[in-house]
Structures are given as C-alpha cells and as structure tokens.
C-alpha cells in the first residue's frame, strides 16, 4: 500500500519567499536615483557643471533672476549640490537688487538643499558611485552655502524692518542782520542832508565874503599909491568867495535832494514796519536854524 502526502502543508514556503524578495528589494530602493542611471564622479560632475555655469555667468550681472532660474533648473536635473548653491547666490543677488523677499527666500531654500546633498554624500551609507564633490571641496562648498543663507536671512530681516521717517531737516539759521525797517535809509538820508546843509553854509559864507570884498573895493582910494595892489588882493578874495558860493550851490542841491528823498522813503518804511510789528512810535525828523557868534546854519534832528 502506497501512502500519499497531504497537499495542504505545501503552501507554507510562500511567506518565506515574500520575505526573501523584500530583503532583496529594500537596499535597491534606498539608493539615490542618479546612481541607478549611471555613476556620478567628481570629475564627470565638474564637466557637466561647468557647461551650466558658463551659460549662467553672462546673465549674473544683467539678469540675476534669469541666471538663478537656469541654475536652479539644472541643479534639479543633476542633483548637483554646487549648482544648488550657485542658484542660491543668484537668487540672493536678485533679491538684494530688486528688494524681493520671495527671491531671498528661494536663495535660502536652494543653498540649504545644496548643503543637505553635500552632507549626505559624505555619509558612508551613501552610494560611492554618486559623488559630486571631492573630499577637499566639501568644506569650501558648505562655507559658501552657509554664507548665502546668512546673507539672505539678514536681507530678509532688513526688508521686514519698518521704514522709519527721515529725521527733519533743520533749516539753517539765518544770521540776524539789520532789520529792514527803514533805519538804513533814514541814516543815509540824514548824512546826505547834513552834507546838503553844509553846502548851504558854503553858499552863505561865499556870499558874505564876496559882499565884504565888494565893500572893501568901494572903500579904496583911487589916488592911493598902492591902489592897484590893494585892488588885486581884494579882487582875488572876491573870486575865491564866488567859487565857494558856487561849489556850495552844487553840494547843497545834491545833498539836500538825495537826503530828503532818502529820509522820506526811510520814514515811510519805518512807519510801515512799526505798524506791522505792533509798535506805535513813528520816526520824526526836524530841521532847525542854528545861529551863533561867527557862524550860522541848520541843525538836523530826529527819532528813528
């Protein structure tokens, strides 16, 4: 009699097979995607990177935003940490130039991604066939990435500060000068008038000397031996007196004409100034004759 085996227990190896398949597939799925497409070495990454950087370089000065977009797109395709940091620098330049907070935030984002990839590739668990940097380049790129983040965050903080109103501009203090109340005109008019009065005095003195000379000539004795000499001397004095009188006429005309005009204008301005500033006093000018032993003339007085 032949014994037959029971088919039921034959199904038990199935779970073991599933577990084995799972153990095989897990390490494969944890590998970085670029490693599945082909090995990436620092040398091959540098060649691809240079082509991108050469395309972006002319744009950095004139169009940093365009350069940033180019670098960011290529960094995403290649997962190159250096290109990510390059994009961060370009976004930083755009944000500072345009005062664009969104560009500054993208600068922080891309520089941070670049540093994360660079740090991950230094981990022993990372596939050695997926390396964009030599060991000596790591510290340099990390320093560059940190600077992009720090500068971008500082620029964002500056943009967030409330705009302070500029301090008021102080008007330069004007030096206090002579008030424009007519006093200068009055002083000038008074001086010119005094000169004019002096001209009147010259006229009076000239006329007096001329009259005296005429009387002296009339009193001469024509039969006197020195008649001619005395006449010539008196005639000379009379001519001098006439010159003084004529000069006095000119001085008086100019002095009094200018002086009185200035006084009138000054008194008018003084009155208007006092009325505007609430003062009741008005300027007063008076001219009076001055007579004494051996002299005669006019006196000028006033309150300004």
Automatic annotation (TrEMBL):
Q: Which UniProt keywords apply?
A: Membrane, Signal, Transmembrane, Transmembrane helix
* The organism of origin for this protein: Nannocystis punicea
Identification of the protein by name: Secreted protein
List the residue ranges of the region (Disordered).
Answer: 154-182
Transmembrane residue ranges: 243-265
Q: Which residues are the signal sequence here?
A: 1-37
**In what ranges is there compositional bias, type Basic and acidic residues?**
154-163, 170-182
